[in-house]
Amino acid sequence: MNTPSQGGKEAARTPEELREQVAYTREELGQTVEALAAKADVKAQTKERAAEIKDQAAQKAALVTGRLRDKAAQAAQLVKDKTPDPVLDKAAHAAAQVRDTAARAGQLAVEKTPDQVREKADQAATMARANRTPLLAAAAVLAFFLLLRRNRRHR
């Protein structure tokens, strides 16, 4: 493609060369306009930056979660190593008893609960699973207001 010469004098150009120069200039102008529009689009820049920060936070959370899991596993192993075997046996036996009792209580509750109540409970559970995000948001708002109320009472 031909561009204007730096010497100040231009040779006579053919119409085809002029068309090419116009097309080239239009392309450059279009790229410049796109670059300026991207710089001026604060909303898009904010969204992009928020996405970057979100990704960074997720990475840090995953890292911290991994570290916490490692520390918890180390602490659990340390407690297990330090706990005498008879105590571990009694704890395991008690845990098994609690599981059995809970299973029996759950089975008894299922047997004694009328069918209509069970159906309504199943419907409510299904709706809660389907609308998990709004329910969690409502719970967070409720918790916030309860904490705010509690803090105002203590002043």
TrEMBL record:
TM region(s), chain numbering: 130-148
Domain of life of the organism encoding this protein: Bacteria
Keywords, alphabetical: Membrane, Transmembrane, Transmembrane helix
The protein's name in its UniProt record: DUF3618 domain-containing protein
